[in-house]
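Before going further, learn to read the protein records used in this course. Taken together, the tokens spell out the fold as the letters spell out the chain. A record is reproduced here so that you can trace the correspondence yourselves:

***
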Amino acid sequence: MDNKPVTALDERFSHPAAVATSWDRTLEVLEGAELFWISTVRANGRPHVTPVVVVWYGDALWFTTGADEQKYANLRANQHVALTTGCNSWEGGLDVVVEGLASHVTDEGRLRQVAAAFSVKWGGHWRFTVRDGSFRHTDSGVTSEVFEVMPLRAFAHAKGDPFGATTHRF
């Protein structure tokens, strides 16, 4: 990332022996995660949370959604999202939450690059072609809209001994 974040340990939620998790370590988790949970806000203010497949590309997180899905309707009214990944263990691991604005991307040149990044990350399992400003799933032909999330803040929660809470601000 050209624009490295300002990183700080949040001592309120950290063991006295904890140190801040580096952005490089946080980025390893973002790049390697197979599943994220996206949180969006419904028109009536209620939260909506659902799993998504994500790829880190060009200093941003990218995900897809169908135009008839709840998260797409939510994003049309409110671009604020949180993307969460990590593990369910208490004694070890690193959980990461990224907050940002989800931007609907239709530029076909950028979409082709992101489609290639999905294919590389997933060994060809998630394959898309680009047409009319959207992704088409190569196997099923299903259309997906594509969103980019540039991080505004990221939180890295180190678990185990010692527990530590880090904030990365962009």
Summary: The two ends are 11 Å apart (CA to CA). Residues 61 and 110 are 13 Å apart (CA to CA). The mean pLDDT is 96. The first strand starts at residue 6 and ends at 9.
